[in-house]
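Ticket #4471: structure output looks truncated?

Reporter: J.K.
Steps to reproduce: submitted the chain below (535 residues) through the standard prediction queue, then opened the result file.
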Amino acid sequence: MATAKISQKSVYLITIVASLGGLLFGYDTAVISGAVGALEASFITSLENDTVLAENSIFQFKVILSICILAIGLLFASFVLKFFKRSTAYIIIAGILILGGAIYYFQFLTLPGVLTENLRNSILGFMVSSALVGCIIGASMGDNAANSIGRRNGLILSALLFLLSACGSSYPEFMNIFPGNDLTSFIIYRIVGGIGVGLASMLAPVYIAEMAPAGIRGKLVSFNQFAIVTGMLVVYFVNYFIVSGQTEDWINQTGWRYMFLSESIPALLFLLFLFFVPKTPRFQTMKGNEKDAMKVLSKLNGPERASEILAEIKASFSRTKSHWLSFGWTVVIVGIVLSVFQQFVGINVVLYYAPQIFEGMGMETDASMLQTIIVGAINMLFTILAIMTVDNFGRKKLMMIGSAVMAISMIGLGFALYLQVEGLPALLLMLLYIAAFAMSWGPVTWVLLSEIFPNKIRGVMAVAVAVQWLANLIVSWTFPMMDKNEALVETFNHGFSYWIYGVMAILSGLFIWKFVPETKGRTLEDMESLWIRKK
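Returned output as attached by the reporter:
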């Protein structure tokens, strides 16, 4: 009895430590929301008054964007090589390189160094969403990091990147060790933090899953999603208390720095606590340290069960993985489109730009920050509701209901802004949208992605996750271009972008209804049979 008690206590403590990675994931994702206006004032507005600085910044923006596109291109080229025969893959990569390179060169690189409205909004959008470039890179590194340095050490690396990003983002001028100006320094440090987010998003749930006893694994892995939305809510409170009662000038000069610097506290705690938790038994066994693996397994599962689990772990290494198209294109496309729609419905626009959206509705800075706390609270409560109901209610129903409610609320919000019926109606529509997403497409997409891919092609999930971060980058980057475009604002008064997201919500619901199977109650073997039949 005493052993079981120690086991339960240990596994919960380990889960809490690993979930700090999820909390930092949410914290880093949402910290930008309170700083968008100040970042615009500090970095973008100054370009309008200094043509030399603007020209220099535009050149550096082109360089850093080209490097980011090259890095993402290499990542997706590696995916193409895993889907197709080498000769076919090279033809596809060359075709994309020539066509994409030509468009990028003539439509962007050759543009003069003049700060046009679209270029200004593009720089702002990329500055806000630049961490997502790092997320794509970090998520793609996750599998290699897990198998080379280990799950726990990968999380330690993630914590160090969080810490470096927190300090560098808050004082980019003092920590500028790069051949560029302060704007470039800020973007690079945000990308560094993004790599930490990408690693944590991949490694934290893997670490928890490998440490948790089978009977409570689902609950403990779900705790990571809860930690992510908790991190978002915590940073909304932090941002509110930083700006509360302060002048606009102070926020633009100092307040935004404290927002980014505040991340160093949970990052430091995460780093320190990780040194007190063990490496996973699976990694220890992979590296030939069966004795150490047995110690951990005995502590968490009891000596008798530990021997059985160790035998299962050793047997799992002998299973061969199949080609990524062993079950045809259908399952691959379904997984990728799920990831794309999760972002194209516009959730991260709300999470990143919430204070600016509320200020656009006529609210003061303090009030708009307070509204983001309500957004975070609704997000957390309905995520908990989804975790509690997904196994009973079914994945497909939750997703379709979520799509319908998101479509109604986003299209309604677009009309509220277009007709200038702002204030309470607009706020209620936004909260309705958050609630619908939080109990459907937020957590349930991850559940579906973990279930639809058969074990033999589990690696395809890395493609879906990378595409999800890429879709997030596209949506977050393009929002300022639409929302701040003078012609669109004059015609639609900020409502245009929300109609786009509303249409995407409709399409997402139709996609779920027509193409996504219900996975509730199905074993992974059932899923294999299903995809074989659909081949």
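Triage note (M.O.): checked the attachment and the full token line is present. Residues 1-6 have pLDDT under 50 and may be disordered.
Status: closed, working as intended.
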